[in-house]
Amino acid sequence: MLHTLFQAYAASPLSHAIRGSSWAFAIIEMAHLMMLALFGGVLLIGGLGLTGTAFQFPDRTGAWLSLRRTGLWALAGLVLSGLLMIGSNPMKYYFHTAFRAKMVLLAFAVIASAIVERGIRPGAVRPILTNFAVATALLLWFAVAVAGRMIGFF
Amino acid sequence: MIDLWQAIYDTPFATTIRESEVVFPVIESVHVLSLALMAGTIAVVDLRVLGVVLRHTPAVRVERQITPLTWLGFAVMAASGALLFIAEAADLKHNPAFLTKVALLILAGVNMAIFQWHSRPRLAGLGAASRAPLAARLGAAASLALWACVIVAGRAIAYFHPH
Questions:
Q1: ipTM of this complex prediction, to 2 decimal places
Q2: pTM score, whole prediction
């Protein structure tokens, strides 16, 4: 099913347009990196602020929620630019080991982030479990970024 | 006259980095991720000064807590950037994207210095609910734009590469 989806994307006018342009991929990649920086900064500060280890905010949950909106916009930008980057050669991405690893890690990072979200509800999870979930989520998002970098090299 | 850029490029150390199939990609990945760390943490401080995020925490308190992380990102970015420069010095000499990136880094540094000396003392007396002075907000907007341009120029280096 996924194979068919990638094949259909490869045959689409959008993919043809990206492949046919000299600068489309470069511009999309630049946007992807900008969103990565913003998302990484927001996630790191929000996450570490939530645990109270590196950053001390008067209201930890309030700080997380304040940063979350910007983080979600950055994530949306990452996903959109990422989808367009795949359009430059969908079948190459489909068979790429680093890309597959990135997608698996991304799924785990989203699950870990969802657990963090559940943990910040008043009385939902003990703080130590929330801290563990935050640390796991941060490590997974870092691994997603590293796997993304590996796509270009291998 | 000795071409310093070529001399650096021709050193055994530079050749080792350049020709390694593992070392160069690893250094470049570290460089990109540390740049993201630095620019990302700066962006959060800028967005706080602009009143977009963390509005319940005074701007100076946010800046004071985040700055060590920004410096960590800068240190790793500068070290990895120096290694990348050594490996490709001769190619970078005429690369417009690289020269633009260096100019933008200098501008971003000057903007940060102005923030520290001019805007930071004025922000220090403000509470969480107070709006930052116009000069501070303009500096924050300039910072966001400059770091975005640094990322764009940095990525463009590869597209102006002779190889």
A1: 0.89
A2: 0.91
